[in-house]
């Protein structure tokens, strides 16, 4: 009887062995142990191989730059993708288009998602989009679109709590992924202090659940106002460092009508230099070559060549808006902001992958000599 007990205990111990850092914990066909050692998590490396990695083995912030998991500079050159709006009702157009976006040279995709999605989308659909981007060697930014333009700080808290409640999902892909808490939260006229306080709370909510990686924070006023970052951005970084021993904060500007080429509220040269001089890390998370201006609804030009040139010279990341699926704003169709040409209601359009299939804006983003995506994008070396 004693021998039987000893053998049984040995079998129990064997079946629940702790997997050490860098060792396999999952993958297609894997039947071994999956419980990772303390301080590590079972992370996606490829479909066939998941391994135990430290929670902090992902993107980090350096001096005015983003660093990958191996400490190498990673300069974002990518595209926004409307997954929540175009992967619903069983279409999955946006997810299927990720291969095309990568083929054209992007090294990053910013995935749009919503808490209140329609069309029966579930968390596994978001995971499938994340994995598809990784398979195509693109870093992933996940952003929530639910609070766009909202004046209510509690909406930022709500979105941060959603990330916190689902942090186990994002931990699986932390080597490849950054969290963009809330797309374009706050309307025009929002004070820098209100913006600062809302995100100070949001940072703590997500950090307290163990996320060590980069958090991206959109500027106020539909992400167009750089002055809040200039005056209060470093304070948010300092809060993250002091309260959570972290500091992996990246800020994001969306360059639209307030950044127009002639007479815009924000001059590109002036504010790129001011932002650079703050020492914080930031990107252009959205921009286009033109955009309707409120309240006139007239289209105005954005000096996209100057923007991309400044980004090249000062090593600033950028993501163009957007692959396809644009709707209406200011009583006008936004389809001129699509990067790929054709009827966006058909899957065929989303899957196009030749520069000949791009719109005028698409060709400008991808092929402008010396500064476009194809001239400046470098794929990460951290992919399997």
From TrEMBL:
<dbReference type="InterPro" id="IPR000254">
    <property type="entry name" value="CBD"/>
</dbReference>
<dbReference type="GO" id="GO:0030248">
    <property type="term" value="F:cellulose binding"/>
</dbReference>
<dbReference type="InterPro" id="IPR017853">
    <property type="entry name" value="GH"/>
</dbReference>
<dbReference type="InterPro" id="IPR001547">
    <property type="entry name" value="Glyco_hydro_5"/>
</dbReference>
<dbReference type="InterPro" id="IPR035971">
    <property type="entry name" value="CBD_sf"/>
</dbReference>
<keyword id="KW-0326">Glycosidase</keyword>
<feature type="domain" description="CBM1">
    <location>
        <begin position="17"/>
        <end position="53"/>
    </location>
</feature>
<keyword id="KW-0378">Hydrolase</keyword>
<comment type="similarity">
    <text>Belongs to the glycosyl hydrolase 5 (cellulase A) family.</text>
</comment>
<feature type="signal peptide">
    <location>
        <begin position="1"/>
        <end position="17"/>
    </location>
</feature>
<dbReference type="GO" id="GO:0004553">
    <property type="term" value="F:hydrolase activity, hydrolyzing O-glycosyl compounds"/>
</dbReference>
<dbReference type="Pfam" id="PF00150">
    <property type="entry name" value="Cellulase"/>
</dbReference>
<protein>
    <recommendedName>
        <fullName>CBM1 domain-containing protein</fullName>
    </recommendedName>
</protein>
<dbReference type="GO" id="GO:0005576">
    <property type="term" value="C:extracellular region"/>
</dbReference>
<dbReference type="GO" id="GO:0009251">
    <property type="term" value="P:glucan catabolic process"/>
</dbReference>
<dbReference type="Pfam" id="PF00734">
    <property type="entry name" value="CBM_1"/>
</dbReference>
<keyword id="KW-0732">Signal</keyword>
């Amino acid at each position: 009887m004693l021998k039987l007990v000893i053998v049984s205990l040995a079998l129990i111990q064997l079946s629940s062995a702790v997997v050490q850092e860098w060792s396999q914990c999952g993958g297609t066909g894997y039947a071994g142990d999956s419980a990772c050692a303390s301080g590590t998590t079972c992370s996606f490396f490829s479909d066939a191989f998941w391994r135990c990695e430290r929670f902090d083995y992902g993107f980090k912030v350096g001096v005015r730059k983003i660093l990958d998991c191996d400490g190498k500079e990673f300069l974002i050159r990518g595209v926004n993708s409307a997954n929540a709006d175009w992967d619903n009702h069983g279409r999955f157009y946006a997810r299927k288009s990720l291969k095309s976006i990568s083929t054209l040279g992007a090294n990053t995709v910013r995935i749009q998602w919503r808490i209140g999605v329609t069309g029966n989308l579930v968390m596994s659909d978001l995971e499938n989009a994340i994995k598809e981007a990784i398979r195509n060697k693109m870093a992933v930014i996940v952003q929530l679109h639910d609070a766009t333009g909202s004046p209510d700080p509690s909406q930022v808290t709500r979105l941060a709590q959603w990330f916190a409640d689902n942090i186990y999902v994002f931990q699986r892909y932390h080597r490849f992924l950054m969290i963009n808490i809330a797309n374009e939260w706050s309307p025009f006229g929002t004070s820098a202090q209100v913006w600062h306080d809302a995100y100070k709370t949001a940072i703590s909510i997500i950090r307290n659940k163990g996320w060590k990686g980069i958090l991206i924070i959109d500027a106020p006023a539909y992400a167009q106002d750089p002055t809040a970052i200039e005056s209060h951005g470093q304070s948010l970084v300092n809060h993250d460092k002091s309260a959570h021993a972290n500091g992996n904060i990246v800020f994001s500007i969306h360059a639209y009508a307030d950044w127009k080429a002639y007479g815009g509220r924000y001059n590109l040269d002036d504010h790129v230099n001011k932002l650079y001089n703050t020492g914080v890390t930031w990107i252009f998370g959205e921009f286009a070559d033109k955009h309707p201006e409120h309240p006139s609804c007239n289209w105005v030009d954005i000096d996209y060549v100057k923007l991309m040139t400044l980004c090249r010279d000062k090593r600033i990341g950028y993501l163009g808006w957007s692959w396809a699926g644009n709707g209406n704003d200011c009583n006008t169709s936004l389809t001129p902001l699509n990067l790929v040409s054709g009827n966006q209601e058909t899957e065929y359009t989303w899957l196009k992958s030749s520069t000949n299939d791009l719109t005028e804006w698409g060709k400008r983003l991808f092929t402008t000599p010396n500064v476009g995506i194809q001239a400046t994008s470098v794929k990460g070396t951290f992919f399997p």
